[in-house]
Every structure is written in C-alpha cells, then in structure tokens.
Write a structure and sequence with these properties.
The chain has 660 residues and is of the alpha+beta class. It folds into six domains: 5-65, Helix hairpin bin (Helix Hairpins, Orthogonal Bundle); 86-302, D-amino Acid Aminotransferase, Chain A, domain 1; 307-409, Nucleic acid-binding proteins (OB fold (Dihydrolipoamide Acetyltransferase, E2P)), CATH 2.40.50; 416-486, 5' to 3' exonuclease, C-terminal subdomain (DNA polymerase, domain 1, Orthogonal Bundle); 491-566, 5' to 3' exonuclease, C-terminal subdomain (DNA polymerase, domain 1, Orthogonal Bundle), CATH 1.10.150; 588-657, BRCT domain (Rossmann fold), CATH 3.40.50.10190. The strands form five sheets. Strands 12, 13, 14, 15, 16, 17 and 18 form a seven-stranded antiparallel beta sheet that branches. Helix 16 packs across helix 17 (505-513).
C-alpha cells in the first residue's frame, strides 16, 4: 500500500518541524516545545515511516535513533585537506609564531575540543557521508553513527558539494554518568567518544548523547575569510563554538586570551586540551602556504601536560643519520599518563643550560602533547654537580663536533652511527620497504662489516649468512626475495630513501609532477646551483631547495646514486629494473574512492608505480586512467567528461595479475 497525498504532506510537515525543534534544542539551546510534544510528533513520524517506507528519507529526523545493522566502517578517501597542526607548548612559542605575521593580520583563537575529528560531506544539501580523520588522506566512513548525533545537520540549504570539518565530543556530565555504568570505565571523554563513533550498531551510538562543533567549511569558490565561512555555516544550521574570538597580531591581547581560556577551562561543560590560532584571510593563508606536515598559517597551543617526578641517572648522546648529536636523559622509571618513562630527550645544549640540568637532579617530567616526554624543570639540585656539557667530539667516531644553529653535529660522513642510521632509514617501511630485512638483521650485517652503504645491500651474497646461527636457508631466501623485490620501487620512493634532509614524500611528489622526472634532471639543477628550479614549485620552500642542492652536489651522494643505479634501482619515472613488470610504463593514473583489496589506497598506488605507471592528484586531459572505488566523488564525472578510461577495482586486479 502506498501513502496518499495527505499522508505525504503530513510526513513532510512533521519532518520539517522536528528538524527545526532539534536545531533549537541541540544547537541554539533554546527549545520552543516541550519534550512531551516533541516525542508525540516524533512517534507519529516514526509510525508513518514504518507503515509507508517510501516516506522515509536520508535526512529524516528518525535517523537519529540509529539501527541494529552491523557497520563495516569502510575506508574512504578525503577530498579536502585534513592536515595536522604545528604544536606549541608555551605562550612564547605562540607569540613567536604571531610575530612572523604582518602587524594587521586578523586571526582566530579557538578552543581545541578534546574529541574526535570528523569531516561531513554533503551532496545537494543532504549528508552523504561522515569520515574520521584517519591518516589525513583516508578515514573510516562512520556515517550511520554520526547521523545519530543530533547537532549534526542531516540537510542543509546548499546545492552542490560541501565538506565541513568539526569535532565530535561528549560533555563532561554525560561522560561521568555513562562511565559509572561501564564494566571497564574509560580514562577520558575523548576515548569514550572514539569508542562510540565506532560502535557496530548505530542504535548504541544514538543513546550516548554526542555533540558537535564545526570549525571549517570548504566552499567553492572559497569565501574570503574565516568570518564569512562561519557566517555561512551558522546560516546552514551548524553548531559553532561561541567562545571563538578574532584578534589582531597584538602580543598583549594574545597573552590575555590564553590566560582567560586557561582560567576558564575547568568551568567548561566539555574538555579542551588547548587552543588553535588560525589566520582568518583565505588569501593570506595561500600566501603563507604549507610545510610537509602542516599549514604555516595555524598553530595549536597545548595546555600543560601530565607530569611526574624522577631523578636523572645519566645523560647519553645519540648520533642520527644526519650527524645531529642529541642528548638524552636516562631517568629512574616513572609512570606518566599511563606509560612508563625512562628516557627523555634534552634537544640540545641550549635546552640543558636553560634548565641548568645536572646528572643526579630531581626533575619534573611531562608528556608534551600527551606523547613526547620532556624535562620541564629541576625540582631539587644535585648540589656540587656541574651543569652537563655535551662532548666536543662525536661519542661514536671521535670526530670534532661542529655547531650549526642550536644543534651540534658530527661532520664525519663515515661515522658508524650515521652509517647505521642511513642504512636503517633506507630499508624502512616508508622508504625502500625491504621485506624480511629488519633492524636486527641490519645491525648484524653492519657489525660483521658486510654492509656499510645502501648499495652493499644489493651486492652482498646473503648465502654467506647460512654459517651463522639464526640464518637458515628459508630465512636467507626470504631476505633475498625482499631485496630483489625492492628494486621495483618507483623513482619517488628511491629518491626519498636517499635521506636528503627535509625532502619528504610530499615535496618529492610535487617536484616530480613539476617535470623533474629523472635523477639526471635533479643533478643538473643541483650542479648549476639553480634554486629557482625547485622554488618555482608551489609548496617547496628555500630550506628544501638548499638542502637538495647541497646534498646532490656532495661527491659521496653522487657516487651512491650511480652505484644504486648500477644495482638496478629506478632513477627515472617509468623506468624499471630488468626483469620487473612494466605493463603500466608511460601511463598516468588518478585514484579516487575506497577499495576492498587496497587499504589504505596507497597500496593501489604502489601497484601502479612499481609497474611503471605514474599517479597524479587530479584528473586532467593528460590522465590515461581513473581507478575508481566506492564513494569516488567528482573525479569520476570529470573523467567521463574528458574521456578518461575508468577502471573499477575488479578490472584493476585482473590487470595487475596479467589477466587483462
């Protein structure tokens, strides 16, 4: 039986009224009807939808109650930037950031809600999906659970596509009440919120009472500033934090705001773990740009972290792959924030001098950002002990150390610690990813003198290991397979693996996309000392350009590159080592959506690149293929318009297996 015109009209009217009442109650905090009246209308709409399922829409208010269906939490690719923020642990660091801005710059001061970051994707005014931050590129689709959050608009008056970033949280009072009922209580509201967001049945999430604050909207074309974004989001019914204020670059006003928020923190109905400061102007944000990890136009100030007291038992100096010498305090084990701390970095000599730190001192140790252990202050001095001074020579090789800025370096490129660090970096998961050749095996190879430089990894006869305990025939065979397989890594991976300071995957990708598609082009630019080749690429700054030119002009680096090239590694886009699969050579691919076999979807990118293909960020007339998974968004439409071949996951699997 189908619903008649009158029943359809009644369902539409009920849904519209209930949406308005939900917004008044959960966003504005000013309900206009009683709970009894609201429940009566809600029950009537539920009854109509139950009897006539065609009346139920994706944005119906009844969706708030959730369902008993199991959620799979598929991985979904983000179509907007979901970046981390630079961190500051003192007011002085925030002031230093602000001083780099022009005097009249307007920026926001927002509370950093201690919850779960979420991106809401709307299509033609309806909430299409809600995705967790994940790794910043791919997150989990938790739409069914997020639809139960009553302050999340299910419909907005906006045509086209809109992405909105926000934070889902649980008020303190609700957390305390709910936590008392749990067999295993949660440590804080954030952990409980994260657990609720990933409940398998959305009906369970619906009863918890999660809330939302939004802080960013991605409009096309972009709006002029953050104030305009907030006005639009407020107009569309999104809840914004009323404590957000806008400031100019005034040090006194900034300090006053931080003090005010710090004092008021205990009185808030929800948890915050810091403040976020962002430049308001869209144009100024673009001008300031980004680093490899975060925007330069924003910074997060973290409140005081968990602390503990302990004693400094000794100080060691560690030497990294770049030669940087880092002092590390060995402290009597102390539990802080649920983990046992026994080693704490001391950064450099300036930091030690600031603390006036000596071996034997009683110190306060914190977990900055609840992650990184740090010595905050000396509580009780070890009387008579001198302030610790870093050695004038490298503790590993004895070379006379050199100072560069605030840090001390070992200048000896043949230093055993640097060699060890470079080799372990080279084989790492995010670099050459040499399977079955782990850190312990590498330490053994280095200790026996079998391997000193990356090319040695490809020249060594691993059958020689079989005379040593722990290296049976199968293990040796697996190492050899891993080494051979790594030769198929694409040029971009090989370039990152060289360990050039400041040259990470993002910068490498940008520079290759700009036309630097072979190592010879890189070497030519470096030899000429032409920084403009690198600086002309948006997102690549002077420090990266200088580091690349300096590294590639060193004879030992050029020698290593030539050795690795002779070993069969790829130093040109599309070029493969002999005997490797090159079926995608010369083709350009774009990837969109989420996949069943490739989680995260970077795994699909690896399959393309190791067969000679090139992966680009956006579809263009030069793109040969669009690999399209679930929830692909607008890239599919653009590919269809441009005549780009669209490949689904099943066909792609056949292609990489050689079946098509």
């Amino acid at each position: 039986m189908e619903a008649g015109r009158e029943l359809r009209a009644e369902a539409l009217r009920l849904a519209e009224d209930l949406r308005r009442y939900q917004y008044e109650y959960y966003v504005l905090g000013r309900p206009s009807v009683s709970d009894l009246e609201y429940d009566r209308l809600f029950d009537r709409l539920s009854a109509l939808e139950s009897r006539y399922p065609e009346l139920k829409t994706a944005d119906s208010p009844t969706q708030r109650v959730g369902s008993d269906l199991e959620a799979g939490f598929e991985e979904t690719a983000h179509t907007v930037p979901v970046l981390s923020l630079d961190k500051a642990y003192s007011v002085a660091e925030v002031v230093a950031w602000m001083r780099r801005l022009p005097p009249q710059t307007v920026f926001s001061a927002e509370q950093k809600i201690d919850g779960v970051s979420i991106v809401l994707y709307y299509e033609n005014g309806v909430l299409a999906r809600a995705v967790t931050r994940g790794n910043g590129f791919v997150g989990n689709d938790v739409s069914e659970n997020v639809r139960t959050v009553r302050s999340v608009p299910l419909r907005i008056p906006y045509e086209g596509k809109l992405a909105v970033r926000g934070e889902i949280y649980l008020p303190k009072k609700d957390f305390e009440l709910l936590n008392k009922t749990l067999e295993v209580p949660f440590a804080n509201p954030r952990n409980l919120t994260a657990g609720v967001i990933r409940r398998k049945q959305s009906r369970e999430a619906a009863v918890v009472g999660l809330r939302l604050f939004v802080y960013e909207g991605f409009f096309e074309p972009p709006l002029p500033d953050q104030q305009a974004v907030f006005e639009k989001l407020r107009e569309y019914g999104f809840p914004l934090n009323p404590h957000t204020v806008f400031l100019t670059a005034d040090e006194e006003r900034l300090r006053s705001q931080i003090e005010k928020e710090t004092r008021g923190r205990p009185l808030l109905p929800y948890e915050i773990d810091g403040l976020v400061f962002k430049v308001a102007s869209t144009a100024e944000r673009e001008a300031l740009g980004y680093t490899e990890h975060h925007p330069k136009w924003a910074i997060a100030y973290k409140f005081e972290s968990p602390t503990g007291e302990t004693t400094v038992e000794g100080i060691d100096v560690q030497v990294g792959r770049t030669g940087r010498m880092t002092p590390v305090a060995r402290v009597a084990p102390v539990e802080i924030g649920g983990s046992m701390i026994s080693n704490v970095t001391l950064h450099n000599q300036d930091y030690i001098d600031l603390l006036e730190l000596s071996v034997g001192d009683r110190v306060q140790v914190s977990k900055r950002g609840d992650v990184i252990p740090a010595v905050e202050r000396v509580i009780e001095k070890n009387e008579g002990a001198p302030v610790y001074k870093m050695p004038e020579r490298c503790p590993e090789c004895g070379a006379e150390a050199e100072n560069a800025g605030a840090h001390r370096f070992c200048p000896n490129g043949d230093c055993p610690a640097q060699k060890r660090g470079r080799l372990k970096f080279f084989i790492g998961r995010d670099q050459m990813n040499i399977e079955n050749l782990g850190g312990e095996t590498m330490d053994f190879l280095i200790g026996k003198g079998f391997v000193s430089f990356p090319p040695d990894i490809y020249r060594f006869d691993y059958t020689k290991l079989m005379k040593y305990d722990g290296f049976g025939e199968k293990k040796v065979e697996s190492i050899v397979r891993g080494v051979e397989k790594s030769k198929s890594q694409p040029f971009a991976k090989v370039l990152v693996s060289l360990g050039i300071p400041e040259l990470g995957p993002k910068a490498v990708s940008l520079l290759i996309d700009s036309g630097l598609t072979s190592i010879d082009l890189w070497l030519e630019a470096a030899e000429k000392g032409d920084e403009s080749v690198f600086l002309s690429v948006k997102g690549v700054g002077p420090s990266i350009a200088a580091s690349v030119i300096g590294a590639l002009n060193r004879p030992e680096m050029r020698g290593m590159i030539e050795d690795l090239r002779r070993c069969g590694l790829s130093f040109e886009c599309g070029k493969r080592s002999s005997g490797t699969d090159s079926r995608f050579e010369g083709t350009s691919w774009c990837i969109t959506g989420s996949f069943g076999h490739f989680k995260p979807r970077e795994k699909a990118q690896e399959e393309i690149e190791k067969r000679g293909g090139r992966v680009v960020a956006a579809v263009s007339s030069k793109t040969d293929y669009l690999l399209a998974g679930e929830g692909g968004g607008g890239k599919r439409g653009k590919a269809e318009a441009l005549g780009v071949t669209i490949i689904d996951e099943q066909r792609f699997l056949k292609m990489i297996k050689g079946e098509e």
